[in-house]
Every structure is written in C-alpha cells, then in structure tokens.
Specification:
With 754 residues, the protein is α+β, with helices and mostly antiparallel strands. The protein starts with a strand and ends in a 5-residue tail after the last strand. Helix 6 crosses helix 9. The chain has twelve helices and 37 strands. Among the domains are: 109 residues, Immunoglobulin-like (Sandwich), CATH 2.60.40; 142 residues, Sandwich (Immunoglobulin-like); 67 residues, Immunoglobulin-like (Sandwich).
Length: 754
C-alpha cells in the first residue's frame, strides 16, 4: 500500500505531496502529439559538410544557425541559435543526432520555455518509436519524464528525416517538474557512474573520464560544490544495512527510485545505471532536500541488444552485473522492505503501462503518424539497411543482429519471465512517497493531519510530541466518515489535534498498530511559530505604471523588504511567495541587508531579468504575500500580509516601518521609510472627530464598523467595532492616527494627567 501524508492547519484541506510531487507539464505547442512537426535549420553552406564529418573530438562544437519551427498550430523563426552533434555511438552513424541551443550565442535566451532541444535520430531502431514509447510509459507511471514528440528535420533544406524531439533535462526541466524556480544541484551521470564510495572528500567525485566528468554538475556550476553528492554516496555505501532506510530516506527519494528500477528491468534498459553505470541524472530537490533519480537516453530498450544478453529473461532481482558495484540497486534490494516494494512495482507496472494491450494501440497510432516521414527519410536505411517493411513490422518481428526481438514479443516475453521470477509479495503497508509535510502559519490552535493510502488498512495512529524527536502521545486516525474525516472507506485517514501548545516545533510520525517501525522512521517536524520579527514585508504595489522603474527602466509590481533588526541579514535561504501551497516559490538573491536597509523586489514574473525579479506577479484585486526562510530544511514563516485591491500607483504599507497596522498610501515610498505624514485618506467619507484636540471621550459624526488608534510610531493603543465614541482618557498627550473602515484620520490628545 503506497502511502502519502500531509498536514493542514485550521481544518484546511491541503494538496498532497507538495514538496516532492512530480508535475507532468502539458505537452504544449512545441511537443504536438497528433502530428509530425517540422524544424528547419539554416547555417552557412560550408558548415554542413564539416558538421556531418565531425566525430567524438569535435562533437561539442556549435555552429551558429537560424531555427524555424512549423506545425499546424504554431510557427516561429529564431535567429542565432547553436547547432551541434549529440550522442555517443550515433556520432559515427550516417544518421546523426543533434542538439539545438537557444542560449549559446544569446545569453539567457529561451524558446517557449526551452533552452535546448534534443533531436534523437534512433538510428539503430527500425521502428523509430522505442525511445518515445519508453518516455511515455515513464510519464504515465508518474515518474519524472521528458516530453517527446516526432519531428521532420531539414538542414539547409536538405531532408534529414524523422527525429524524436526529447525534452532536455536541465534547470528549466526541474523548474517545471519539481516546482523549483531556483534549482538545486543537477548531476548528469555518465559511464562509469556506479555511485561507489571513493572518499569523504567531495572533490573526489569530480573525477574525469575521456575528457569529461563522470558526475557532471549542470546547475550552480560556478559554486562547483559536490558536498551533497559526496554525502549521498557516503551514506549509501557506508551505512549498515539495518540503519540504511532511516539514514537514506531523508536525503534520497527511495520510493520513486524503486519504481524507476522496476521500469528498467521491464523495459530492458541495459544502458542505464543498473547494468551499464550510465545515462542517468541525480537532482537535489531544494523543496524536499532529497535527491531524485531520473532516466536519460532510452533508445537501447525493448529488445535492442549490443552486448549479447537475453534481456527478456534476465533475472529482475539481479539485473546488475554480478562482479560490479551498483550500490543504489544492490544494497537497496538487500533490505526486505525495499526488495518487496521493488517487486510490487514490477507487478504494478505490468498491470498498467507495461502491458501489450495498451502498447499495441499506441504503437499503431505512432506508426500511422510517422509512416509518411519514415518513407521519405533518406537516412533510414543507411546504417543497417533497414527497409520500410522493417519499420512497419518492427513492432512484431525481430530484425536480427542487435534487434533481437520485435517490441510486442519482447514485452510479452519480459512479462512472462518477470511474473515467473516474482517473489511472494506482501502489499506494502506504508511506502512513503513523500515524507515532507505542508504547514502554514497557525491561525488557531487546531491542526488536522491526513494520511492517504491506496488500499485499506484497519487502523493508523499518529504519534507526536513537542521536544526533539519525542513522540510521547498517540492518537487514532480515522477513515469512518465522521468529522474530521470526510468520507468513510476512502483510504484517507484523518486525525485532529486541538489546543496545541505554542511550541517552536511539533514532531510527529505515523505507525500501524502492532508494527515496530514508524513512518518516517526518524519522525519529522513542523515549525509551529513564525520567526521573531527582523525582516519585514514593509510595502507593496500591485499596479505600478511609473512610480518607480527597474534596472531596465520598466515599471513593475514591487515588494519592499525592510531589515528592522540591529544586525545585518544574509538573504540566503529566504523566499517570497504569493501561494501558501508553494512557500519556496521565489528564492531571494544572495545578498546582504544592513540594519535599517530597504530593498525592492520586482513582482513581474520575469526571473530571467535578474536576481531581484520574482517568478510571480501580484494580483491587483488583492491577495496574500508571504516571506519564508528554510530552517533545518523546513520553510518557516517570517512575515505575511493580505493586501486589498489597490488603485493604480497606490501602495499598501505599514503605517510605520515594521508596525503591525497597514494602510493605503497614495504617495508610496519605494526603497524609503514609511511615514504617517504620507498617509492618504483614500475614498474617505467625511468624518468629524470632536473635540479635536480632546482629552477624554471623543465623539464621531459617523459609526465605525471597526477601528484602531495608533501613535505615530505605529503602536496600537485602542481598537474596537460598531461605535461612534473613542475613550481617550488613557492616552498620553500627542498626535494619533485613527484607522477605520471610513478611512485614515489624524487627531491629537491633550491630557494633562498623561
């Protein structure tokens, strides 16, 4: 039984798996599924023959070219792109594979959200569809998967034939798939990347092979810091087996990897990590703090063989070569729970995506779609003599040589063999898909926990406590349809805690009664309180047409932060968000704010403009804005505001810097101090306060629905509702501000006794 848990505040239902949820982006305009789009590359006439003759040594050289994309719904031309060879064995093939880069000659350039395009020639596959089928199966299995489509390529109007457009795995990919606008470390791992332990020194994993790094850092390359990879490999290899789950799960997404491994052994992917220590990515998800394993290069699958192995019948539990280290697969399968879960996912995939019935229909659709282009492909038969009949019958017939099986016969044989090999399975009671929790600034003292399961268990307990990894109290979670549970027998267990102490953290874990293990095994925590004030959201403007301009002389929505503490603040680890379900939406630029300093961030949803441009914009009808900081891997709330609908060029700011009360400013102060004298009585109904100045009871000519009385430093002295009287008898002499539903007014008090 796969298991996900989440936490809500104040009986608010929160979506599942916020931090490690895999998002499958829509295919969109550039990955059409119902047609073969056209890509045209135009480069200098002398460059094409040079490009096609390049081998391994020159494959990285990029030729400057122009790019045009054509489909029935969308066409566009882009100039000054980079065009080069890609691949390994395909470099020496007649039918090359290519990479298109939009940011080689224009820094930061993207096209339709993409920095690069991979065009896979599939020169060794007579069906031309194995790569796409595998990526589609991964996508349907809810695993991190590149988007794919079929493309006809022309270079200088020469027909280069059919290609599979495979989405490039880079920072833009992980931004979309893991909701990480500022990605963590992404490592491209190529042969001989076995993940075996080398040393405690992170630099040991910067080793080279044939002029490239085995573990090549693709993001945050200027930092070139391999400490997270070193820690992961050290824990994976050096931890005793009985302690490995508790040590590994906080830093690695074990459950998703076991499903990836199940796909490998079913699809016959021998050129990946497990058999060939090759072709995978490791990504450190900044939201969860866990590494994610992702596949790469799926052409040697579904019956393709170059190393004289019977992939359809190879043992599923011993897929790795027996004499070589593959700790990520071999060590995990030595742990009974993981071994059982791996077998469970092999069985699950065979009943869903890896089934001949569903694949047969999809194969027929793809064949009909690409047949005209394959028939016209001048390179289709150059490398191995493939004919058009080989293409059309490759779904059912072996070609011979390296194509030892048709696609469907391989699937059927692999299923028969895998079913025969499966050990007795116990449906996993709890297989944690996400050990992260949703939490929010508590609005009251009630917390609701929800546990989502895929199959019925009789009972589930929540254990919790308020000191470090202490779980002193246990309560029953219910699936009976009685509040707080919603529907009976829906495999969603709920538990509610009331009168929760105002402790800094709350620790918790789940347990099935009668079982010794808990989930997560070391427990987890949520911050219960916001941080003490030091960094404030001080003022915001949701529609700026010219009050202030960014560094490109463009007006944009803006957010002002103020350091109200007595020491400087490093902004590393702080985040702004307009979405409570995504607290790490925009990471602030690494920088330093001195005491009393103001800093503007542009809420224009254009983060490529620079580090002070947010990945969201502000709603002029009003919304919530939050400031978080990651503390011990969990987002902790530092500040939050709800700003109302604002007129153009009006701002919503604290009545004084750091004050609790907020008002509308007609004359905003971006990057400067908020002053009570700058307050505008917006949309004011004439209100008379008398006597003014006064000393005891002040009378109003209108009844206020609500009000606050603040001094000029922003401290609140009075508040109330539904009144036309103010009791000023306890106020010291001086100037005050009345903030109410009728506007903002100043009045003075002369009280000789105060």
């Amino acid at each position: 039984m796969r298991f996900i848990f989440l936490l809500g505040i104040s009986l608010l239902v929160i979506p599942l798996g916020m931090f490690s949820q895999v998002i499958q982006p829509e295919y969109g305009l550039v990955f059409p599924q119902d047609e073969v789009s056209v890509i045209r590359i135009t480069l200098h006439p002398d460059s094409l023959p040079v490009l096609l003759e390049l081998g391994q040594a020159g494959s990285e050289h990029e030729f400057q070219a122009n790019f045009r994309f054509e489909s029935s719904n969308f066409s566009q031309t882009i100039q000054n792109i980079g065009f080069r060879l890609r691949g390994n064995t395909s470099l020496n093939a007649a039918k090359k594979s290519f990479k298109i880069s939009f940011n080689t000659f224009i820094q930061g350039a993207r096209w339709q959200g993409l920095e690069k395009i991979n065009l896979n020639g599939s020169h060794n596959d007579p069906t031309r569809i194995r790569t796409k089928l595998c990526w589609e199966m991964l996508r349907k299995a809810e695993l991190p998967a590149a988007r794919t489509s079929m493309v006809q390529l022309f270079v200088n109007e020469q027909n280069m034939g059919l290609y599979t457009h495979v989405e490039h795995i880079d920072e833009t990919f992980v931004e979309r798939v893991f909701s990480n606008p500022h990605p963590g470390n992404l490592y491209k791992c190529l042969y001989p990347a076995d993940l075996d332990y080398i040393s405690e020194n992170p630099a040991a994993y910067q080793l080279d092979f044939n002029g490239r790094r085995v573990y090549e850092l693709k993001t945050n390359i200027y930092a070139d810091n391999y400490s997270d990879l070193s820690e992961f490999i050290s824990i994976l290899n050096q931890t005793e087996l009985e302690d490995l789950p508790c040590a590994l799960e906080p830093i690695f997404q074990v459950d998703r990897y076991l499903r990836q491994a199940a796909f490998d052994v079913l699809s016959g992917n021998w050129d990946g990590y497990i058999f060939n220590k090759n072709n995978f990515y490791l990504y450190k998800n900044r939201n969860s703090g866990q590494f994610e394993f992702m596949q790469y290069d799926l052409d040697n699958t579904l019956g393709i063989d170059w190393v004289n192995q019977d992939w359809a019948n190879r043992p599923i539990y011993a897929w790795a070569p027996g004499s070589q280290e593959r700790p990520l697969f071999n060590r995990l399968l030595q742990i009974p729970e993981y071994r059982n879960r791996f077998g469970f996912y092999v069985d699950e995939l065979m009943q869903s995506v890896f089934h001949p019935d569903s694949l047969r229909q999809r194969i027929n659709e793809l064949q009909d779609l690409i047949a005209p282009v394959v028939n016209e492909d001048p390179f289709h038969g150059l490398d191995y003599g493939f004919t058009f009949d080989d293409f059309y019958h490759g779904d059912s017939l072996a070609w011979g040589g390296h194509v030892e099986s048709g696609v469907l016969p391989f699937v059927e044989a692999r299923r028969i063999s895998a079913i025969d090999q499966l050990e007795a399975l116990i449906v996993p009671d709890i297989a944690i898909v996400s050990v992260e929790v949703r939490h929010d600034f508590p609005l009251n003292d009630t917390i609701r926990f929800m546990a989502h399961c895929t199959a019925g268990i009789d009972s589930l307990h929540l254990e919790y406590g308020y000191s470090v990894n202490t779980f002193s109290t246990s309560i029953v979670a219910f699936d009976d349809g009685v509040f707080p549970d919603t529907d009976a027998s829906d495999h969603i267990f709920t538990a509610r805690l009331q009168n929760v102490p105002s402790s800094d953290r709350m620790y918790y874990r789940w347990r099935i009664p009668g079982r010794p293990d808990a989930f997560p095994c070391l427990g987890d925590f949520v911050h219960r309180n916001s941080a003490p004030p030091s960094l404030y959201i001080n003022e915001v403007m949701s529609e700026n047409t010219g009050v202030v301009f960014d560094e490109l002389n463009t007006p944009a929505d803006w957010i002002e932060l103020w350091n109200g503490g007595f020491s400087g603040i490093n902004l590393n680890g702080f985040y702004l968000s307009d979405d409570a379900t995504n607290p790490l939406k925009f990471e602030l630029a690494n920088g330093f704010m001195s005491p009393g300093e103001f800093k503007l961030f542009w809420a224009d949803n254009e983060p490529l403009k620079g580090p002070e441009h947010c990945s969201f914009s502000l709603d002029n009808d009003g919304e919530e804005l939050r400031l978080y900081k990651l503390e011990d891997g969990k987002p902790r709330l530092y500040d939050r505001i709800d700003f109302p609908a604002l007129n153009v060029n009006f701002s919503w700011g604290r009545i004084q810097d750091g004050a609790e009360s907020w008002i509308v400013f007609e004359s905003s102060t971006p990057g400067g101090s908020n002053q009570a004298t700058g307050i505008s009585d917006i949309e004011r109904i004439q209100l008379v306060i008398f006597p003014n100045p006064g000393s005891e009871i002040l009378h109003l000519n209108r009844t206020l629905n609500f009000f606050q009385v603040l001094d000029i430093s922003g401290r609140m002295h009075l508040s109330g509702q539904n009144t036309n009287l103010l009791d000023a008898s306890e106020l010291a002499s001086g100037m005050y501000v009345l903030v109410s539903d009728l506007g903002v007014y100043r009045f003075s008090v002369e009280n000789s006794l105060k």
